[in-house]
Amino acid sequence: MTMFQVRLHGRGGQGVVTAAEMLSIAAFLEGRHAQAFPNFGSERMGAPVVSFCRIDDKPIRLREPILEPDAVIVQDVTLLGAVPVFQGLKPKGYVLVNSTKTLKELGLADALDKMPTGHVRVVGATELAVRHVGRPVPNAALLGAFAGVTGLLHFASVEAAIRDKFKGAVGDGNVKAARAAFDDVAVPA
Amino acid sequence: MLKQIEGSRAVAEAVALCRPEVICAYPITPQTHIVEACGEFVKTGQLQNCEYVNVESEFAALSVAIGASAAGARTYTATASQGLLFMAEAVYNASGLGLPIVMTLGNRAIGAPINIWNDHSDAMSMRDAGWIMLFAETNQEALDLHIQAFRLAEQLSCPIMVCMDGFILTHAYERLEIPDQAAVDAFLPPFVPRQALDPADPYSIGAMVGPEAFTEVRYLAHDKQLQALEVIPEIHQSFKEQFGRESGGLFHTYQVEGAATVVVTMGSLAGTLKDAVDELAQEGPQVGVISLSCYRPFPRTELRHALEHARRVIVVEKAVAPGAGGVVSMDLRMALQGVDCYVKTVIAGLGGRPVTSPSLQSMLRRALKGELADLHFLDLNRGMVDRELARQRRGIATGPVAENLLKDAATHGAD
Amino acid sequence: MPQTKLDELSDQQKVKFYQKGTFTVGNRLVDPDKRDVQASQDRSNAITSGHRACQGCGEALGARFALDAAMRAADSKVIAVNATGCLEVFSTPYPETSWQLPWMHSLFGNAPAVATGVQAAMRAKGREDVRAIAQGGDGGTTDIGFGCLSGMFERNDDVLYICYDNEAYMNTGVQRSSATPPTARTATTPAVGDAPGNVFGTGKNVPLIALAHNIPYVATASVSNLHDLEAKVQKAMSLRGARYLHIFVPCPLGWGSAAEDTIKVARLASECGLFPLWEGELGVVTGSDPIRKKVPVEDYLKTQKRFAHLFKPERDEERLAALQRMADHNIERFDLLREDKEPAI
What we know:
The complex is a heterotrimer.
Chain A: E1 4-11, H1 16-29, E2 33-38, E3 48-56, E4 71-74, E5 94-98, H2 103-106, E6 120-123, H3 125-132, H4 139-150, H5 155-165, H6 168-186
Parallel strand pairs in A: 1-4, 4-5, 5-6
Antiparallel strand pairs in A: 1-3, 2-3
Helix pairs in contact in A: 1-4, 1-5, 3-4, 3-6, 4-5, 4-6, 5-6
Chain B: E1 2-6, H1 7-17, E2 22-25, H2 34-44, E3 51-54, H3 58-70, E4 75-79, H4 81-86, H5 88-96, E5 102-107, H6 121-125, E6 132-135, H7 139-156, E7 160-165, E8 173-177, H8 181-187, E9 204-205, H9 214-243, E10 251-254, E11 261-266, H10 269-280, E12 288-292, E13 294-296, H11 300-306, E14 312-317, H12 327-335, E15 342-347, H13 357-368, E16 375-377, H14 382-394, H15 401-412
Parallel strand pairs in B: 2-3, 2-4, 4-5, 5-7, 6-7, 11-12, 11-14, 14-15, 15-16
Antiparallel strand pairs in B: 1-8, 6-13, 10-12
Chain C: H1 5-12, H2 58-73, E1 78-82, H3 86-91, E2 103-105, H4 111-124, E3 131-137, H5 138-143, H6 146-154, E4 159-165, H7 206-211, E5 217-222, H8 226-237, E6 243-248, H9 252-255, H10 262-271, E7 278-281, E8 284-288, H11 297-301, H12 317-333
Parallel strand pairs in C: 1-2, 1-3, 3-4, 4-6, 5-6
Antiparallel strand pairs in C: 5-7, 7-8
């Protein structure tokens, strides 16, 4: 594969940095090289946060922030309009948005209508997290959806990465949320 | 064992494998996770026979380390940025006393203006403090350098700063090989101090030295650094034999042979640079890259040898000496005296500004055309600077510069 | 046990005492078990003769008594850390050193932290029989080293810190410290103007601040009462954790007192109430040394040129009264004129 770059947008407290780290762990478990890092800052709860993950078959030397992502994950729709979340997104890239609304309702339909079919999905990740974990932390569910939409990772790797970060019941809940999102995106929108 | 792990945590694991006996911790802003993880290892028993001291300042952190090391314990601490400056007096003291303390420096900028992001200003401020200063290019190297550092420090009885880029390396999750305990034990013998405070054999340590011997004491400090130039490659080789990895040494070269243009840098920037020169090679000549692993001692002769065929040397450095230029460039110009080449300075990545491959490539294109100024600030927002200079020309009381520039950035964006 | 280098040094230094009177160092008229450490031929001579202290130096005397007592209490297993200052400079004009115990000087402001490091190293090595002592003057303790001192107290590190208080920066030429008393003349509080010398209402009482850290032991002591000083060192060494001893040590040079009057000046400081002798444990004052014969502060002040401007060209009644009030306040606070008149310790 050529290098695949993911940019994650969210707010402090939503596990944006952890999501990138889990993504890198899942890729690592599949024998790949991966590099996850946050957009460095002293952000507090609620502040916009960006994190990044690069995945490649060979060692990754590049250390710049991801300028042209292959995929963008938006964990919080209140960022739309406030932060240029789709900046530099590759024309054949992927977009995952955490929401229960449709793209049209979110006002994204026009902006993203050139993207390939099936590459843009809206997932109710917060609701899945509340249902399965008991807390509105959408990161694991979005990773499940990411695996489903991109086909880049096996769900088993995502599950193992989640369990690496979250032990016990919290891990179980997050895996369930991720599985539900993975299954959800398997059905064409 | 291969692990996908955060840089800070990996360094903490490496430090624990070195069996330190005393670790001091102070969480100055900016802080890395290294000492936190060390504290966890001590509490869980993963790291035994180790005293973990939570101190009240960075000055105390290094002072506790000084006492512990002088009493014959293998000693470790970590710091960054303002923390290093706050301990400055003790930094000089530790090297003057010849104490083999190993300290991680998670490189960050120095204020004011307050800034928690990466550059090398902190390290440069202590470059003449008599410590051996090693720079890691990757997290794997950062991990490996810590294991080498204890051996090197104790062999020469000299403190070592292992520098790794704050955030860019310390907070990055990557695939790393963590050595096992037996291998580290085989590589790193137990600490036998050159001098130790011992009731059975009392020494006085830290006496005043006057003009009659001070020059000689300082000369020997210099000589010790020169010895390090010989010992570092030996340790590099021995590490390679034991662990099968190229980590450390004096510097790394990439595509330097036959290259008329060579970029010299330190730290994680080298990775992005290698990508940049490879991409550039598709349209023009191959540019070489040298990244220094060992900054103090400065490997003058070795660099001169490596660069003797270069015609253009561009030093990309993450610190600026206001009124003078680039610090690494000055060292390098000394090394290249008599070599028929010019040395240009590029200041990049200050206070966490991302250094991107496109920016580096456009800078290198200019360099190849001979259009690069002697001192160039990468991605400098000239408009912002000129507007502030114009404000200052209008009057004296124009207010604080940093705040003016932030206001300007908010008004004009990144034009 | 094999003969160590320390044993050799001690043997070389064995002193022969000659009885000359009741005030000699030997205390030969006192019961053997009540004799001080200095009266023993087996004293360690931790800081031995030949150092470069001035005539009549209170600090050299205080350090000798304190460290020899500590050495006896710890079976000679003591490591001393010294802040920069007079004691450090006069004791180690290398290649000569007065220290016959392992001794280290690092910086002016970090002796407590360095001692913490020494103690941590010993703990890591399972050598908790080796005790760490940090020492410094009042500048190194109450000013520049105060942060490290408070940190060491707060962590309750197993360190005895000894402050030799001569009430100013003597090593650098007699500048004011936060232990300099009001009205005292120093190089930075000259005896000129309407209120010559140091001002009122500043400075800090570090023994009481130490007490407020709730550490196991805090005491003040003076070179005027060396039995008491040794007893307090012994008490401190019998405990583990952070301990603080603040010793009053006159400086003939800085104070403008006669070199032969050091003990007398120190005694007057306590007898007038300006330097009360007390001790405390875990945040509570547990005892004080009552004044045997109260004297007015004037008697003390007149022994020193640093207070000369209080008496010449005319008496500064107002500020003399203020100093007397300070002394009276101490007497009241530590109950120094109580009936029993017996030392509480």
